[in-house]
Amino acid sequence: MQTQTHSTPTSIKLPVELRDRLQNLAKVRKRTPHSLMLQALETYVTREEQRESLRQEARAAHDEFMLTGLHVTAEEADAWLAELEAGNDVEPPKCHV
């Protein structure tokens, strides 16, 4: 987790059961509930940013396909990936319409 140079307070209302679980985990881990929440939020936000980036890339690729029709078949992609997995440095298949 990155150290923040500037922090701003915020509040969150936790259900009592979740708050108790968090406090118990913090005690067992010898950490503060605050540090566990920061770690959880950092992990979640990073994962969701990566997921959103992948979604945007997929959307752009789909839009490009819809404009050009260029593609490779699943069989072509599978064969290429199998070669890479086998350790062979091969060029990707050529796109076609």
Task: Please tell me about this protein's structure.
This protein has 97 residues and is mainly α. The protein has one domain (16-85). The chain has three helices and no strands. It has helices at residues 16-29, 33-68, 74-85. The longest helix has 36 residues, at 33-68. It comes from Solidesulfovibrio aerotolerans. This is Ribbon-helix-helix protein, CopG family. InterPro entries: Arc_rbn_hlx_hlx (IPR013321), Ribbon_hlx_hlx (IPR010985).
Shape descriptor reads elongated
Rg: 23 Å
> Average pLDDT value?
95
Question: Care to count the β-strands?
Answer: 0
Largest beta-sheet details: none
In percent, how much strand structure appears in the residues?
under 5%
State the helicity in percent bands.
55-70%
Whole-number count of domains: 1
- The structural class is mainly alpha
User: How are helices and strands ordered from N to C?
Assistant: HHH
Q: How far apart are the termini?
A: 46 Å
Low-confidence stretches: none
Tally the helices: 3
Task: Provide keyphrases for this structure.
mainly alpha
Briefly summarize what is shown.
The protein has 97 residues and is mostly helical. Helices cover 64% and strands 0% of the residues.
Blueprint (SSEs and pairs):
Layout: H1 16-29, H2 33-68, H3 74-85
Helix pairs in contact: 1-2
